[in-house]
Every structure is written in structure tokens, then in C-alpha cells.
Design brief:
heterodimer, A: 198 residues, alpha+beta, 25% helix, B: 246 residues, 2 domains, eight-stranded mixed sheet, two-stranded antiparallel sheet, 10 strands, elongated
Chain lengths: 198, 246
């Protein structure tokens, strides 16, 4: 390998025709070639696996599930006008959440253990994100787009959620990205929710 | 075995330089691997950007239910297999400013008679959120007001807890009912395909039928064209090309 590297000269140096010809005929060592083939083969296998998984199991990348104009967020017909947690049926909930500089609406949620919660998240102004620590809830919150995720919370506790996209600042105002957080309380009984947050 | 000291040792370059045909072979091999890698990436990129096939997303399974029509006859989700079904949800107590979608359903009833859905039957179902606890005469009077053709448009209801499970937990509609029977709900129209899969949810009052007609056309085209190898193309389209229906 060291011999091969010695052929490669820094850019800008002049070479004789013979040296140029030798530099162009880069020889790949046997084991180096083997590993290159393995790496390329693994890449091909990964692409194939992703394709098969997507077609066979319906796994798809997160995308736009719905669009909404930020100007329409306060439309009374729109659930984002009254963000919060709503019980759809016993054990099933939905959350309409608005991320804005620099807070979440709502910034506190309480659900019982085992609750299946569908999150609908959008942003009012700039790009935000939401990550509920200790869970797999992790979404972008984009102005004009509704991000959706369904999660089931099986362990009681207090889970903080934070904005994980640096959401800038307003000139003349203190930077508030780090203050953008909320709490999800998963309680095994209503009275436990109060105790967990005290 | 002795090596003459008068002969210069061959340089490393001379030793390691491969024959020209071997170098060409390596280049071709690397080019082949790169091409194998690039072709699927390029195909995926073009498919995502150009969207040659457009489909409605598969949102999830529609809920199964065992409700009843306004004559007390059993009305189950299994009866709707093989049909495109458009659901809406309302209440007989719905008065302005309540967002009643039944007027839109009435327009749809007239429109689907002439709409080309590729031979797929379309059924309209209005779920009355009042429940069977309400006065049956009130429910029937409400349905009669819209001049529903029973062949195309059904009005159904169920006991309150069954409705809550199916409509709230299944279709994802949040609604509340007071003890006095007054129901508050958000507007929702849902499109379910013949396999019982949710394909579109319109969570607002529809200004016209354009979205519904477009989506019915997309499903009809998918059913018509997705047999055989082209079915894989449609499956790929489900990964990239979905309409937002909010």
C-alpha cells in the first residue's frame, strides 16, 4: 500500500509523461479490491433490503400527511385552533399540537398508562421539532405541514418533550429555543399524575 | 540463489504496475459496480420527483362495526366489502353554525350516478352520532329530509358506546354528546376502499366535490391498472407520491 501511495503526488506538481502514465494506471491491491467489492455489495444489499421492506411490509419514510396554512391555524373549524389532548374513545387519544417560538401548545399532557395517542403537530412560524425523551416520538414541526405519529405509552412516568430544531431568535428579544419544552405525564391513575409532577 | 550486486533491484513501481489489460478490467469492474449502485438510486430519485403514478395513501384499516340502519336492520362493515364507501358524520341536532356535511353527501349522491369509477360501486354512509338512544322518528325524519336513495346512501346509527368505539377510536372523529342529546362534532368525511382501508380523510367542510372526485378517480385508476408487474409500480408510488387530503 505504501508503495502505491508513493505514486500519488500532491496536485500542482509537474510530472514526466512516464510518471503521468503510471499515476493513471492505479493498481488496486488484492485485499483492497476485495474489501471494496464487499462494501459495494453491502450497499447494494442494503438498498435491496430497504426496497423489499418497503414493498413487502409497507414501511415508508415519514412524509407529508397533510398540509395546512399557518394563517388558518386559528380558524374555528380547525382543531389546531384549540390545541390539546382529546379522548376519542376509551384508551385512545389525539393531540393537536402547535409549535411556535418558543413554546408548545399545549405544554403539558396527561394520559393513562396504555393510552394510544395520535399526535398531529404543526408549526406556526418557523421550523421546530418535537422529541419526547425516552420514547420513539420524534418529529419535525414545519409551517404548512401536519406531521403525524401514533404512539402507545405503557410505562408510567414523566416524559419531557423538547424542541430539537434550533428555532432562531427574534432581534432584540432573548433567545428562547432552550425554553421550548413540555411534559407528558403517563399515569396509572389520575391522582398519580398530580403526584408525579410534584 | 545469489543475487548479483551489479544488477539494480527492480523498483517498487515496476513491480507493482499491472498490465494494461488488467487495469482496464479493474476500471470496468468498478464502473459496473458504480452503475449498479447508481441505476436504482437514479430510478428512485426520478420516481419521487416526477411522480409518474399518483396514488392515495393507505392511511390504515377502517374500523369494523356492527351498527344498524334506521329501520333497525343490521348494517355491518362487512356488507361494504368490495365497494368504495364515503362516510360522513352528523347529528339530527345539528343546526347552524353546526358543520353538517349532509348537503355535500346529497350532491355526491347525484354526482356518483354519472361518475366514472371504473365499474366500482360507490356507497354513501351517514353515521348519526345521536345513537339509538335518540328518538327513532327524529332520525328517520332527518334522513328523509335529504331524499336519500337507499341504493346509494345509507343512514346508520348504534348505541352510544359502540359509536364511540367505532367513530372516535376507529375513524378518529372527536365528538361529545350532552345528557340532553346535543352532539358537538368536527366535520369529517372519510373515503374507504373496497378492501376496507382508509384512503382519505377530509377534516373540514368540503367546499365542493372536486377533492372527492379526484380521489375516487385515483382509486379507480389504481384498481384498473395495478395488476401484474404494474402493481409493483403502484406499490412504489405508495412510498413517494401521495396526495395530502387535510
Amino acid at each position: 500500500m505504501s508503495e502505491q501511495r508513493s505514486e500519488l503526488s500532491p496536485a500542482g506538481e509537474t510530472h514526466s509523461p512516464q510518471e503521468t502514465e503510471q499515476a493513471e494506471t492505479l493498481h488496486v491491491e488484492k485485499w483492497e479490491g476485495i474489501w471494496i467489492r464487499i462494501a459495494l455489495g453491502m450497499t447494494a444489499v442494503f438498498i435491496l433490503a430497504i426496497t423489499v421492506a418497503a414493498l413487502s411490509f409497507g414501511i415508508s419514510v415519514p412524509g407529508v400527511t397533510a398540509r395546512i396554512s399557518p394563517a388558518a391555524l386559528n380558524d374555528p373549524e380547525n382543531p389546531f385552533a384549540t390545541p390539546g389532548l382529546r379522548e376519542l374513545a376509551p384508551g385512545k387519544y389525539e393531540v393537536y399540537m402547535v409549535a411556535q417560538t418558543w413554546n408548545f401548545l399545549p405544554d403539558r399532557l396527561e394520559v393513562p398508562v396504555g393510552a394510544e395517542v395520535t399526535f398531529y403537530v404543526t408549526a406556526r412560524d418557523v421550523v421546530h421539532g418535537i422529541k419526547i425523551a425516552g420514547t420513539n416520538v420524534n418529529m419535525m414541526a414545519l409551517p404548512g405541514q401536519v406531521s403525524t405519529l401514533k404512539a402507545t405509552f405503557t410505562k408510567p412516568g414523566v416524559y419531557n418533550y423538547i424542541c430539537h430544531e434550533y428555532c432562531g431568535y427574534v432581534a432584540g428579544a432573548p433567545i428562547g429555543h432552550h425554553t421550548m419544552y413540555g411534559q407528558l405525564v403517563v399515569a396509572d391513575a389520575p391522582e398519580t399524575a398530580q403526584a408525579l409532577t410534584e | 540463489m545469489s543475487v548479483s550486486s551489479s544488477q539494480p533491484a527492480p523498483s517498487h513501481r515496476e513491480v507493482s504496475s499491472p498490465p494494461a489489460h488488467e487495469t482496464w478490467g479493474h476500471r470496468r469492474l468498478i464502473g459496473l459496480w458504480l452503475a449498479l449502485l447508481a441505476i436504482p438510486l437514479l430510478a428512485v430519485g426520478l420516481f419521487a420527483v416526477l411522480q409518474p403514478v399518483q396514488v392515495l395513501p393507505r392511511i390504515g384499516l377502517a374500523p369494523g362495526f356492527l351498527w344498524s340502519d334506521l329501520n333497525g336492520q343490521t348494517f355491518s362493515s362487512e356488507l361494504l366489502r368490495g365497494k368504495l364507501v364515503i362516510y360522513n358524520f352528523t347529528s339530527v341536532t345539528c343546526t347552524a353554525p353546526c358543520l353538517d356535511g349532509s348537503a355535500t353527501m346529497q350532491q355526491l349522491q347525484d354526482r356518483i350516478a354519472t361518475l366514472d369509477t371504473g365499474g366500482l360501486p360507490v356507497t354513501l354512509v351517514t353515521v348519526l352520532l345521536d345513537g339509538t338512544e335518540s328518538d327513532p322518528a327524529l332520525l328517520r325524519a332527518y334522513a328523509a329530509r335529504w331524499k336519500a336513495d337507499p341504493e346509494r346512501w345509507q343512514f346508520v346509527t348504534a348505541p352510544a358506546d359502540s359509536l364511540k368505539q367505532g367513530v372516535g377510536g376507529g375513524f378518529g372523529l372527536y365528538y361529545t354528546a350532552t345528557a340532553a342529546g346535543e352532539v358537538t362534532f368536527a366535520p369529517l368525511t372519510v373515503l374507504v376502499d373496497g378492501n376496507g382501508i382508509l384512503r382519505a380523510q377530509y377534516k373540514r367542510t368540503l367546499p365542493d366535490l372536486a377533492f372527492v372526485e379526484r380521489d375516487l378517480g385515483l382509486i379507480a385508476a389504481e384498481v384498473r391498472n395495478s395488476s401484474g408487474a404494474s402493481g409493483l409500480v403502484y406499490e412504489a408510488a405508495h412510498l413517494f407520491a401521495c396526495y395530502a387530503s387535510y
